[in-house]
Write a structure and sequence with these properties.
Number of domains of chain B: 2
Order of helices and strands of chain A: EHEHEHHEHEHEEHEHHEE
Helix content of chain A: 40-55%
Strand order of the largest sheet of chain B: 3-2-6-7-1-8
Oligomer: heterodimer
Radius of gyration of chain A: 22 Å
Distance between the termini of chain B: 29 Å
Strand content of chain B: 25-35%
CATH architecture of the largest domain in chain B: 3-Layer(aba) Sandwich
Distance between the termini of chain A: 32 Å
Largest sheet of chain A: 7 strands, mixed
Structural class of chain A: alpha/beta
CATH class of the largest domain in chain B: Alpha Beta
Largest sheet of chain B: 6 strands, parallel
Number of helices of chain B: 10
CATH class of the largest domain in chain A: Alpha Beta
CATH superfamily of the largest domain in chain B: P-loop containing nucleotide triphosphate hydrolases
CATH topology of the largest domain in chain B: Rossmann fold
Shape of chain B: globular
Chain lengths: 253, 277
């Protein structure tokens, strides 16, 4: 049985947030558990005030520097848990900083929420993910219901009817990937990584990518190619093409 | 995995699972003798997986140390069972060797060697990364230290990258590489040209370790380098960390454009001894 508890709390503004969080935090402190809270400054201040002296027993982190990218947040949670390994059980309370404009960016964060169920499954942790329904689009609140097995409500913890297998959630966003057109250039990934870098740099330059951006593209592609060679069984392909004003470079293994 | 590349061979200790990547038998033998010799001096059980007859490492070990301290076994006998590589049987054999060393009064077993050509040349290389990852469990007891030797001329590149990835410590015994030129311009300074990535950094680790050992700041001129990947930046960060502990610095001169950004992303700050000029 999984030791991970991964709950979502969908709440309505700061007052509702405080109403939920004060008993949640106090319950943890009474049980001797550690609590880390990463939430917007305004809400953190309200929660600190409501907790009074108990706020000193809670660990707080700056949300802007915590929620930088999905991959980094994984590492941050795992590193925090590792630092406290052997200590009391932990409750991690976090409010991701959702991008609302680009669908690809929203998908990345939703994938992150789904992947937590798998990646941290063996960790003895309680994660409470916060969603402010007064600020977030309905689509993102719906993601919360799909990516969290259980929900916090005023009536207590309930199973999420909408919970979906993490693999299905991730696959659901595949439609956002661009399809390579027939004229895309195709390269095999082999030990000749310098050759691959040179080919894609040439394609990028021909597509009008500014000269100063090309080294960044080469580095990103190289790291993906190394990863594909190392973990993808040594078989991977790269395609490059232009899509409107964008230069697209796709690596698949 | 985040590797360490600069650990000296005689500094490897019980619990370390290290990989040696080599490109000549001479360099391999020299590295393994240094590693195994340190074990003999420390009173550890030394197990060598020989590559067959006429193996100078086996010849040097036989008769060394106290009675029963050095054991030489043909690599084929450790990896190949009924004509095929069997990772689980190989790991069981290692576990039994550690127990045997313990039963004979040796607190630590030090093993070195690698799969024979019958494994690396017959298409079984793809099984080696998984084998090495599973081997990690043998090291948690702190009774075993191993240097797993891989010939980069025999193991396909993708398998070699995955094998390297499976080891927390990587040591290179490599000669010059046409893709990367490393020139010592002083006791603590190097000038590089070509490109620096996970496939070429094997030519840099030894000169860099020598420069780090000279006692002062170390400078590396990258003006003629057109590409630096994250693995190499981690190598520089490791060197900077070692230098910082001695109140010295690593100075990277003329680093290509993405380097400052990537160092920032990896949170490798100047106060850790790494300076860009």
């Amino acid at each position: 049985m999984s030791a991970l508890v991964h709950d979502a709390l969908v709440y309505e503004g700061t007052d509702d947030f405080v109403e939920h969080l004060v008993p949640y935090v106090r319950d943890a402190l009474e049980l001797g558990e550690g609590v880390l809270v990463v939430t917007p400054q305004r809400k953190e201040s309200a929660l600190r005030e409501a907790l009074g002296g108990d706020a000193a027993h809670v660990d707080w982190r700056d949300r802007a520097s915590w929620y930088t990218s999905p991959g980094k947040v994984f590492n941050a949670w795992a590193a925090y848990a590792a630092e406290h390994d052997g200590g009391p059980r932990l409750r991690l309370v976090g409010e991701p900083s959702w991008p609302t404009a680009a669908p690809e960016a929203v998908a990345e964060w939703a994938r992150y929420e789904a992947a937590i169920n798998v990646a941290l499954a063996d960790m003895d942790l309680a994660c409470l993910c916060l969603y402010d329904a007064t600020e977030l689009p309905e689509e993102i609140v719906q993601h919360a219901l799909h990516t969290h097995p259980t929900l916090h409500t005023h009536g207590g913890r309930v199973l999420s009817d909408g919970y979906t297998d993490p693999g299905e959630v991730a696959a659901g966003f595949d439609g956002l990937l661009l399809d390579a057109p027939p004229h895309a250039r195709l390269y095999g990934v082999s030990a000749d990584l310098a050759g691959l870098r040179a080919c894609t740099a040439r394609d990028a330059a021909e597509a009008g990518v500014p000269r100063e951006r090309i080294p960044e593209l080469e580095l990103a592609l190289h790291e993906l190619a190394i990863n594909a060679l190392t973990h993808g069984g040594g078989r991977a392909t790269v395609r490059t093409w232009t899509d409107g004003g964008d230069f697209v470079c796709e690596i698949a293994d | 995995m985040s590797h360490r590349f600069l650990r000296p061979l005689d500094g490897l200790e019980a619990g370390d699972h290290a990989c040696l990547v080599y490109d000549s038998d001479e360099r391999r033998d020299q590295a393994l003798l240094a590693f195994l010799g340190a074990g003999l001096e420390r009173g550890e059980r030394v197990l060598y997986l020989s590559r067959g007859d006429d193996d100078p490492v086996a010849a040097a070990l036989l008769g060394s140390g106290s009675p029963g301290q050095a054991v030489v076994v043909p690599a084929d006998d450790c990896y190949v069972f009924d004509g095929a590589f069997d990772p689980e049987l190989a790991l069981d054999g290692f576990a039994r060797s550690v127990e045997d060393a313990h039963d004979n009064g040796f607190g630590t077993m030090r093993s070195a060697g690698g799969p024979p050509p019958s494994v690396t040349r017959n298409g079984s290389s793809d099984l080696l990364p998984g084998y090495e990852r599973r081997a990690a469990r043998l090291f948690s007891s702190g009774k075993l230290v191993s240097l797993c030797a891989y010939d980069c001329r025999c193991v396909p590149q993708a398998a070699l990258l995955a094998i390297i990835d499976a080891h927390p410590i990587v040591v290179y015994a490599m000669g010059t590489d046409a893709r990367l030129d490393v020139r010592a311009t002083g006791a603590g300074s190097l000038a590089l040209s070509g490109w620096l990535d996970l496939t070429t950094l094997g030519g840099l680790t030894e000169p860099l370790a020598r420069a780090v050992g000279h006692g002062g700041d170390v400078s590396v001129d990258l003006e003629a380098v057109d590409f630096v990947d994250v693995a190499c930046l981690r190598l520089f960060a490791e060197a900077a960390h070692v230098l910082h502990a001695r109140s010295r610095r690593l100075i990277l001169e003329h680093a290509p454009a993405p380097v400052p950004n990537v160092l920032r992303l990896l949170a490798l700050h100047p106060e850790e001894g790494l300076v860009l000029q």
